[in-house]
Amino acid sequence: MKKLIALMLIAVAGMAFKAADEGYKVGDTATDFKLKNVNGKTVALADYKAAKGYIVVFTCNHCPYAKAYESRIMDLDKQYAAKGYPVIAISPNDPVAEPADSFENMQKLAAQKGYSFPYLIDETQDITRAYGAKATPHVYVLQKTASGNVVKYIGAIDDDTQNTNTDKVKYVENAVNALIKGKKPEVTATKAIGCSIKWKKSA
Description:
Layout: H1 2-20, E1 29-30, E2 35-37, E3 42-43, E4 53-58, H2 64-80, E5 87-91, H3 103-113, E6 119-121, H4 126-131, E7 135-136, E8 138-145, E9 148-155, H5 171-180, E10 195-196
């Protein structure tokens, strides 16, 4: 009997760990962070005093999906930063596993494309795990409240990975537009389609 109870406790502990590793759900309060930007300075959400919220995008250099969405990510910042919802881009990948995503290559890409938003590197991958990002790109729309930054939308930027459909459903734009109007987004979660996160190998 004691052995059975012990096994059950281990199973419950394992499920609890798995649940904690799944990341945020809509309605959760997201943690702030301090990550290194391509200009060498650290960036935190709290730095944006006038922000009403944030469009946090986990993206990278090498992924074909991230490349396909790059111009749309740039457009999101141009469209919404002035309205209080800036883009905060984070590269989640281990540069040892994917050298194209090294900090130096991130700097080159940001300069080449003229990013108007920070492009941060998650060197420990702790923030990527906390948020639960699974792919690049993977978006988290946060709304700043008195109790913290509340997750209002998680998932894809839109439903057109190839950027060929003129009638695409713009999930992130729709979510942010709703929040700006003081409304709840109609769609709060979609599946992020993209390349898998390149995790560090365990020592």
